[in-house]
């Protein structure tokens, strides 16, 4: 890549970077007020980040290049539990040099999941694994900043042995070995200069939008947003379903009227159905020609997804899942069993970029496309790197990526879609960071939004919510 296209590309790697403090922030955006994110399972979420900052010895607290930023995504209550888990996991990083962690990032990853007492309340799933995603991504962010490169470029520049070193092969070496990784890397290298040129022209990752399709939106709002998205260059659109069959048919009919037959429609049920119910329901929606059904049933039901996939094949409907599939072992089994047409790993639910890369590599081996889950605050900012890495050096295929608009401008380098394609991130780092003013305004424990009158209906809506004055885990 032309180095001139990367902002602030100077490296700070000459300095020995030592992690000296871990800081977490419980940041919550009141999206339940607008129904952004509403679906059949999640009626009114408040998009939140359990945020992790790794402060270093470089003495300029205002310079974001020298602080590693990572986060995981939740939808509100319980975000404080993830923050506390981040502190528990990241404490052993204090005093460690960055180079001692990145020299063998696969070994570092294994070390972080190996505290046996913390492992007991996972292992590699749930709150602990969400927290691991934030910590691991913060290390990657710091590493990329130190090297003066956006994460996708840092990874694309690695040689194959460095890539092999990123992967923890425990539990997956029955389907993916170091030699498989070498073979994939060498095969996909062919023609990568052409793909790199496209990435540099912001044509590496095609976007689809979920922004019009939330279940809580009125017909008028949905129609306006679909029209706006179509005019902005989108060709692929996702709608939430699973509330009521008649309502879904009505909404899909409206969508087809706006988009015509050329627009590609996807639908997402967010796990509300059992296996048989999913099959029967989707047969009813087949007339609207959905490209795939996302999360038709429990994310843990590997065999059930296979049953649904077989039953929907005659209707031309593919099956997708992944946003709540919690680790590489489950992705391995979905692939081994032929349960799935499309994998949708989340940048934070699995254990950060190391595990994401492992899933991309397994998907490439089984020739199943990855269309990462981005439906949450901060997720498009991370997943665009994943999809570029996938395109450049893993699958070589230009797969779709989800874009959700509404909170992108909270970040230093917001995800942006132009003419239906993601703009390529160019600032060194991975998440790079949330804007300081946004973090302060929506800090759940701070003196901003959550202490205003506007916040009260949300806080009063749930008897278990202790609010900003509830107990903190540092007390
Ligand atoms: Mg979804």
TrEMBL record:
<feature type="domain" description="Mandelate racemase/muconate lactonizing enzyme C-terminal">
    <location>
        <begin position="219"/>
        <end position="315"/>
    </location>
</feature>
<dbReference type="Pfam" id="PF13378">
    <property type="entry name" value="MR_MLE_C"/>
</dbReference>
<protein>
    <submittedName>
        <fullName>Enolase C-terminal domain-like protein</fullName>
    </submittedName>
</protein>
<dbReference type="InterPro" id="IPR029065">
    <property type="entry name" value="Enolase_C-like"/>
</dbReference>
<dbReference type="InterPro" id="IPR046945">
    <property type="entry name" value="RHMD-like"/>
</dbReference>
<keyword id="KW-0460">Magnesium</keyword>
<dbReference type="InterPro" id="IPR013342">
    <property type="entry name" value="Mandelate_racemase_C"/>
</dbReference>
<keyword id="KW-0479">Metal-binding</keyword>
<dbReference type="InterPro" id="IPR029017">
    <property type="entry name" value="Enolase-like_N"/>
</dbReference>
<dbReference type="InterPro" id="IPR018110">
    <property type="entry name" value="Mandel_Rmase/mucon_lact_enz_CS"/>
</dbReference>
<dbReference type="GO" id="GO:0009063">
    <property type="term" value="P:amino acid catabolic process"/>
</dbReference>
<dbReference type="GO" id="GO:0016836">
    <property type="term" value="F:hydro-lyase activity"/>
</dbReference>
<dbReference type="GO" id="GO:0016052">
    <property type="term" value="P:carbohydrate catabolic process"/>
</dbReference>
<dbReference type="InterPro" id="IPR036849">
    <property type="entry name" value="Enolase-like_C_sf"/>
</dbReference>
<dbReference type="GO" id="GO:0000287">
    <property type="term" value="F:magnesium ion binding"/>
</dbReference>
<feature type="region of interest" description="Disordered">
    <location>
        <begin position="455"/>
        <end position="475"/>
    </location>
</feature>
């Amino acid at each position: 890549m032309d180095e001139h296209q990367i902002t602030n590309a100077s490296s700070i790697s000459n300095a020995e970077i030592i992690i000296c403090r871990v800081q977490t922030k419980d940041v919550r955006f009141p999206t339940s007020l607008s129904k952004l994110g509403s679906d059949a399972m999640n009626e009114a979420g408040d998009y939140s980040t359990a945020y992790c900052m790794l402060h270093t010895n470089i003495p300029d607290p205002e310079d974001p290049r020298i602080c590693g930023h990572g986060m995981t995504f939740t939808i509100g209550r319980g975000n404080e539990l993830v923050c506390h888990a981040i502190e528990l996991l990241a404490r052993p990083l204090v005093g460690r040099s960055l180079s001692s962690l990145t020299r063998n990032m696969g070994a570092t990853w294994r070390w972080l999941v190996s505290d046996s007492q913390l492992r007991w309340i996972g292992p590699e799933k749930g709150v602990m694994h969400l927290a691991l995603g934030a910590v691991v991504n913060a290390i990657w962010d710091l590493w990329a900043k130190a090297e003066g490169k956006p994460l996708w470029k840092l990874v694309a520049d690695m040689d194959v042995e460095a890539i092999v070193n990123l992967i923890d092969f425990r539990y997956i070496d029955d389907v993916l070995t170091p030699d498989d990784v070498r073979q994939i890397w060498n095969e996909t290298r062919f023609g990568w200069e052409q793909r790199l040129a496209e990435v540099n022209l912001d044509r590496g990752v095609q976007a689809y939008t979920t922004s019009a399709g939330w279940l809580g939106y009125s017909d008028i709002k949905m129609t306006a947003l679909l029209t706006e998205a179509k005019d902005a260059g989108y060709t692929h659109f996702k709608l939430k379903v699973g509330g009521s069959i008649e309502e879904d048919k009505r909404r899909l009919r409206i969508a087809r009227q706006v988009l015509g037959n050329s627009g590609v429609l996807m639908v997402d049920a967010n796990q509300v159905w059992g296996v048989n119910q999913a099959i029967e329901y989707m047969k009813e929606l087949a007339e609207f020609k959905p490209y795939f059904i996302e999360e038709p049933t429990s994310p843990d039901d590997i065999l059930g997804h296979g049953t649904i996939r077989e039953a929907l094949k005659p209707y031309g409907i593919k099956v997708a899942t992944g946003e709540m599939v919690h680790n590489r072992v489950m992705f391995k089994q979905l692939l081994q069993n032929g349960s799935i047409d499309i994998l949708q790993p989340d940048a934070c639910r699995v254990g950060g970029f190391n595990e994401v890369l492992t899933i991309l590599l397994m998907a490439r081996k089984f020739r199943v496309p990855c269309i990462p889950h981005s439906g949450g605050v901060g997720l498009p900012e991370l997943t665009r790197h994943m999809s570029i890495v996938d395109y450049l050096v893993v699958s070589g295929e230009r797969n779709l990526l989800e874009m959700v608009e509404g909170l992108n401008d909270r970040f230093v380098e917001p995800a942006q879609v132009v003419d239906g394609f993601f703009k390529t991130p160019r600032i060194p780092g991975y998440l790079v960071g949330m804007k300081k003013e946004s973090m302060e305004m929506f800090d759940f424990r701070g003196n901003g939004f959550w202490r205003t009158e506007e916040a009260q209906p949300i806080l009063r809506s749930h008897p278990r919510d202790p609010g900003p004055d509830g107990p903190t885990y540092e007390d």
